[in-house]
TrEMBL record:
Organism lineage: Bacteria, Pseudomonadati, Pseudomonadota, Gammaproteobacteria, Oceanospirillales
GO molecular function: ATP binding; transferase activity
Domain Aminoglycoside phosphotransferase: 23-246
Name recorded for this polypeptide: Aminoglycoside phosphotransferase
A Pfam cross-reference name: APH
Alphabetical keyword list: ATP-binding, Nucleotide-binding, Transferase
Membrane spanning stretches: none
Length: 330
């Protein structure tokens, strides 16, 4: 048991007036946070070690408590010490949605449920407390592709034309994102951040980076998931299911062709960011496990380029200059 873990156990003991409990490790994520489980009067609870230099609990706690109060399935926050970076949460169990999706028949039910739950998030007010998904943030995220995957990992030297092509694309995607209806965005809504709860509800985690942004962002995060791929026809069926739910809830969406284009373009922005983050996790944080997900992630962007003539040149660049050396190196 390291020093932080020991400190965490003592904090729990003091808060609940019990002996410092034995902590068992729960699988972590791509962040600096660590998760442990302990029992209180026979009931399992989760404690989080979120070291303040790297992590900030304030956003997680504020969003969790507000969303929970509005009927969204987020874990109840039972205790928090912002200075230490410790939290005690309701235990959602271990059943992530991702493994359940290998059963194709069950997958459709889970996706429809997750999309319906998403509409409830998108309908939330209180948006003034969330940062805007503005041009600076959208551009900064896309630069992760250039800096970490293309630069750091592949060590590619871009020509001035290639650099300009990427910059022009980044600006176009940012503008497209800001022209969409702006709503509450979870910002990492995918199969490894959704959990099937014992009561069969779907629980949401990892929502601390929520923003006020494009309405199709979380939809594409789920349907063009970096960890599992579905045929385009299936994606569009689920997109239509979500659109019907969203319209019924009063969200004003564009006509179908524009909606699909919005979905595809914000998907490209997200997948540029994700591919860059996966490379950064490998090179900066010593977490190489995500490298295997880059071809799938980048593949989504290449598919979009093939669907829209104006992205033909970008698609060729991504395929020849990025995907080919990436696959060769693996």
């Amino acid at each position: 048991m390291d020093q932080r873990q020991q400190q965490l156990s003592h904090w729990i003991g003091e808060h609940f007036n019990i002996q410092p409990p034995q902590l068992t490790t729960v699988s972590g994520d791509a962040s600096f946070r660590r998760y442990f489980r302990f029992e209180l009067q026979g009931k399992p609870l989760i404690v989080v070690d979120a070291p303040p230099p790297q992590e900030d609990c304030h956003s997680f706690v504020a969003i969790a408590r507000y969303w929970h109060s509005q009927g969204i399935h987020t874990p109840e926050v039972l205790a928090v010490d912002f200075e230490l970076g410790f939290m005690c949460l309701e235990d959602f169990g271990d059943q992530l949605l991702r493994p359940l999706l290998d059963d194709k028949k069950a997958a459709s039910q889970y996706y429809q449920q997750a999309l319906t739950d998403l509409v409830a998030v998108q309908k939330l007010s209180n948006t003034s407390q969330l940062p805007r998904y503005d041009d600076a943030l959208l551009m900064r995220e896309q630069m992760l592709l250039k800096d970490w995957l293309i630069g750091e990992h592949l060590q590619l030297q871009l020509s001035s034309d290639e650099a300009q092509l990427l910059d022009d694309t980044f600006h176009l995607l940012s503008e497209s994102a800001q022209q969409q209806l702006q709503v509450t965005v979870h910002r990492d809504y995918h199969s490894r951040n959704l959990m099937l709860l014992p009561n069969q509800n779907i629980g949401m985690i990892d929502f601390q980076d929520a923003v006020f942004g494009p309405v199709t962002y979380d939809v594409v995060s789920l349907l063009k998931d970096c960890y599992i791929a579905w045929p385009r026809q299936q994606q569009l069926q689920w997109l239509e299911h979500w659109a019907q739910q969203a319209k019924s809830a009063g969200l004003e969406l564009p006509e179908q062709k524009q909606l699909i284009r919005d979905f595809d373009l914000i998907g490209m922005q997200r997948h540029f960011k994700a591919a860059g983050i996966f490379a950064r996790l490998n090179h900066r944080d010593g977490k190489p496990g995500y490298m295997a997900d880059i071809p799938r992630t980048l593949g989504y962007a290449i598919e979009v380029c093939q669907l829209y003539p104006e992205f033909e040149k970008l698609g060729e660049f991504l395929q020849q200059r990025v995907m080919k050396p990436l696959i060769s190196a693996q």
